[in-house]
Amino acid sequence: xxxxxxxxxxxxxxxxxxxxxxxxxxxxxxxxxxxxxxxxxxxxxxxxxxxxxxxxxxxxxxxxxxxxxxxxxxxxxxxxxxxxxxxxxxxxxxxxxxxxxxxxxxxxxxxxxxxxxxxxxxxxxxxxxxxxxxxxxxxxxxxxxxxxxxxxxxxxxxxxxxxxxxxxxxxxxxxxxxxxxxxxxxxxxxxxxxxxxxxxxxxxxxxxxxxxxxxxxxxxxxxxxxxxxxxxxxxxxxxxxxxxxxxxxxxxxxxxxxxxxxxxxxxxxxxxxxxxxxxxxxxxxxxxxxxxxxxxxxxxxxxxxxxxxxxxxxxxxxxxxxxxxxxxxxxxxxxxxxxxxxxxxxxxxxxxxxxxxxxxxxxxxxxxxxxxxxxxxxxxxxxxxxxxxxxxxxxxxxxxxxxxxxxxxxxxxxxxxxxxxxxxxxxxxxxxxxxxxxxxxxxxxxxxxxxxxxxxxxxxxxxxxxxxxxxxxxxxxxxxxxxxxxxxxxxxxxxxxxxxxxxxxxxxxxxxxxxxxxxxxxxxxxxxxxxxxxxxxxxxxxxxxxxxxxxxxxxxxxxxxxxxxxxxxxxxxxxxxxxxxxxxxxxxxxxxxxxxxxx
Length: 599
Ligand SMILES: Nc1ncnc2c1ncn2[C@@H]1O[C@H](COP(=O)(O)OP(=O)(O)OP(=O)(O)O)[C@@H](O)[C@H]1O
Description:
Blueprint: H1 19-22, H2 27-59, H3 65-112, H4 122-167, H5 169-216, H6 218-223, H7 227-263, H8 265-281, H9 290-328, E1 347-354, E2 363-370, E3 375-380, H10 386-392, E4 401-406, E5 409-410, H11 416-422, E6 423-426, H12 437-441, H13 450-459, H14 463-467, H15 485-499, E7 503-507, H16 515-529, E8 533-537, E9 549-554, E10 557-562, H17 564-570, H18 573-578
Parallel strand pairs: 3-8, 3-9, 6-7, 7-8
Antiparallel strand pairs: 1-2, 1-4, 4-5, 9-10
Helix pairs in contact: 2-3, 2-4, 2-9, 3-4, 4-5, 4-9, 5-7, 5-8, 5-9, 8-9, 13-15, 15-16
The chain binds adenosine-5'-triphosphate (ATP).
Adenosine-5'-triphosphate binds near residues 383 and 384.
């Protein structure tokens, strides 16, 4: 059967944006700031030139007093220009950076709101955390500081050198000697250290992973008496890191010392003074010419270190831009340009097939119908495809083949609003927001009145627990109150009551802290089921004896379907599972329990 609307065309996915594309919106402002920084850097050298020229004017015989005043005025003006240009450049880059950070974070959140829910695996969520946090900050540093720092680090020594070449080109070249040797040493040093940096970073990654593994699994590790072993793994990673660090320091130590020495102001001062003295003694320059070299020669090398750091910032920012661009290029859930409205709440899966990546299909040719007001349970051994089937209905991902319709409309032809008004879901790992309890319940309907919220909480058997809190419904989750897994699940059932969607997808919890909590949840679910269509991932068979339809999955296919009685009578896979004779991986506990999901 197929009542499907034509599948929506896949939304165009832009190629991942690089650094240039990401900062394009603020490029003109960055260029302006760099130009202003160039002006500031030129102006920064002028007062030193002025002092040197002042020396010349004062030592002239007779003193060139008109020239003295001109030089003083130019030096003073340069100070003002430098300050103004620097303040303007800093202001422009920081405003541009603020706009960029805001627009990138908005774009990220906007894109994340349109990617399939199934995309949010642990790995992808970590990438999102890095992109929204550290990576956007790395771009902040680039736009806010690095470009102008690079301009300053290049222009200041160049202008100084130009002036020194004008004063005496021979002494200028000699003054430049340590800086040139420093650059050559630095380049060799970096080339030799590249491999060491890579293994240093890898070793650092292993230490972090071992630490995280140790901390996250501490309960399991301790309860199985393996604290020593896990601790040893961490220590081994830390030892390996120390070795790599030592190897890197050994390779770079001599070069770093030589570079720091050659580029240090004190060495440059000694070097230029010594060279100038030789030139004066030889009669190649006047004693007054020593002054510019002593004043400006010192500053020739220092910006090179700053340049090294800024170039590194660009490298870091380029890698960060790659990750941000990657998240921004995540394929969106295709949306239909001509949205439809479901006519009714009948749900039909028609020959649905879905695979995760290249792997064999997790769900194959699955067809079934959820009639309005009925409860359908998905059962099967672990990995048989229950969760995948259930997650296809709220569009965690779209089927590779086949269709899913609600009220005759393909879910791909519904707007997200219409879909989530039709389908709510309660999964095991309930995520509560750091907001008040009331806001958490009213998540799907922020405009809900307090009485409606309380009524939903009451129906979900969680009202009493909330009222017992000192701040009641205004308690902030994570600050004033922490909920147990069972309580969080009841809060998410309250969300469903309030959202009032006619179709509910429910992942029955596999474990509860106490029978009382389980009974409360089963009670809440029984109330929720009244008049609604439920698709339940059932992990325990005793809870589904009275459901309208049981679908037994095996390797992604439906191998049996019917009611509890029909399936027991058929004596097939379900009957085997009930008797607990299925393979250990699929064995469901055969004990009975008073609480049940009922229609
Ligand atoms: N995110 C994923 N990426 C790749 N493969 C996956 C992913 N999630 C599930 N699978 C695979 O798809 C198949 C069906 O998994 P699914 O989680 O739907 O089974 P399940 O019956 O719900 O299992 P369980 O009862 O253990 O939760 C399995 O082979 C599983 O390994």
